Automatic annotation (TrEMBL):
Membrane-spanning ranges: 12-30, 50-69
Taxonomic lineage from the root: Bacteria, Pseudomonadati, Bacteroidota, Flavobacteriia, Flavobacteriales
Keyword Membrane included in the entry's annotation: yes
UniProt KW keywords: Cell membrane, Membrane, Transmembrane, Transmembrane helix
Name assigned to this protein: DUF350 domain-containing protein
Pfam families linked: DUF350
Membrane topology term: Multi-pass membrane protein
Organism: Chryseobacterium lathyri
Source organism, top-level taxon: Bacteria
């Protein structure tokens, strides 16, 4: 138990936080580019089509970030 290497765990946590931060930045950029407030439109007006589009957007950006971080 003396030779526990914490570097891979630290790297995993660091890259996870970095990926989530990049995803949030991308979301806020898209939020600013769209004409209406998307979160209000999805939650208050129950716009299913917009929810599906934003779900696909988040999955797509997450896959790009994952591939960029993983290598």
């Amino acid at each position: 138990m003396d030779n526990i290497n914490l570097l891979p765990i630290f790297n995993s946590v660091l890259y996870s936080i970095l990926g989530i931060a990049i995803l949030l930045v991308c979301y806020f950029i898209i939020e600013k580019l769209t004409p209406e407030k998307t979160w209000h439109e999805i939650s208050q007006n129950k716009n299913i089509a917009l929810a599906i589009v934003f779900g696909a957007f988040i999955i797509g950006i997450s896959m790009i970030i994952s591939a960029a971080i993983h290598g």
